Amino acid sequence: MEETKCLIIGSGPAGYTAAIYAARADLKPLMYQGMEPGGQLTTTTEVDNFPGYPEGIDGPTMMEDLKKQAERFGTEIRWGMVTNVDTTERPFKVTTDDGAEILAETIIIATGATAKYLGLESEELFKGGGVSACATCDGFFYKGKDVAVVGGGDTAAEEATYLANMCRKVYLIHRRDELRASKAMQKRVLNTPNIELLWHHEVKEIVGTVEGFNKALNGAILFDNRTGEERKIDIEGFFVAIGHTPNSNLFVDKIQMDDTGYLITKSDSTATSVEGIYAAGDIQDKHFRQAITAAGTGCMAAIEAERFLGEQV
């Protein structure tokens, strides 16, 4: 059976940064990239808010850079998925989708979270070409333009008010007649003059032009779920803010998590409820969900894993 000092489950900014630090600490980490090597940023065309890239960079290129840096220091990166982890004793027995069995002295979980979308074909078509699930990441590209946000919770309200500071107009589309957001967030939305609330509206289709790899969103077709009437709004950006699903199914009933599935870490730490297992990135962060914060927790997890192993000697 294969053995490793540090197994990293998942890639993206958290996983790759953890790999860089763990490899430099001579832990000889082993990484399984998961279903989406590079994480959510591989679906992002431009990244302008990660330090060190003054001209910006596209998401896939940035993730490839991080991967190469991790490999440079000796990380072994493999395709495939971890299918089972026995957390009852150390070293942890791990099984992968190709049947491999690994004994890991420490584990860093960096499986991330998946943004929820509406499930429209046109929405999928315009991802990276006007459709986004992160206003903080992509809002800058729509400065002075008209955009829409769909959702009714705190995330939607926060994204709408954030965008209102830079966009000419923000449509907030909600299928009910009241927001689920906190009273404070609702008040902010209602007191922002360039946010227009579209109650009882749902999205039928995203529209725009597609020429080869060039996509330009220019509107959304909505329908009133009370009357069935349709209308088109002219927008250049469409932000989906209906939540995220943490990729934590592998650890149900094994590691402590909150009622929405995010792994719980100790204060000022990435340590989980299982000694020797750490969580980094969006799998444990429901608030910020940024590449830079994910990278930061990846660094923390690797340092904590290295210190933990040092204490076992």
Describe this structure in words.
The protein is elongated. It has two domains: 2-114 and 244-311, 3-Layer(bba) Sandwich (FAD/NAD(P)-binding domain); 117-240, FAD/NAD(P)-binding domain (3-Layer(bba) Sandwich). It has helices at residues 12-24, 59-72, 121-125, 135-138, 154-164, 183-190, 291-311, and strands spanning 2-9, 30-32, 76-78, 82-86, 92-96, 101-109, 113-115, 131-132, 146-150, 169-173, 195-198, 201-211, 214-224, 230-233, 237-240, 244-246, 277-279. The protein is α/β, with parallel strands linked by helices and 313 residues long. Strands 1, 2, 3, 4, 5, 6 and 17 form a seven-stranded mixed beta sheet that branches. A five-stranded parallel beta sheet has the order 8-15-9-10-11, covered by helices on one side. The mean pLDDT is 94. It is 24% helix and 28% strand.
Query: Hey, roughly how much beta strand do the residues contain?
Result: 25-35%
**CATH homologous superfamily title of the largest domain:** FAD/NAD(P)-binding domain
Mean pLDDT: 94
Helical segment count: 7
* Oligomeric state, counting identical vs distinct chains: single chain
Taking pLDDT < 50 over at least 5 consecutive residues as the criterion, the unreliable ranges are none
